[in-house]
Amino acid sequence: MLKSTIFKAIVAVAIIGGGLLVIYHDQPEPPTGDINRIEPVPKQDSP
Fold it and tell me: pTM of the full predicted structure?
């Protein structure tokens, strides 16, 4: 094999592995506050 082919393969594996590592460690945060509570919009003064 050529050295450039081996280098390209190593770089491709590193990029794919890094992407998978980021996806694996990305834990979504739970939403803050009460999302089930609905409040009416405050009344506005007419112009």
Answer: 0.51
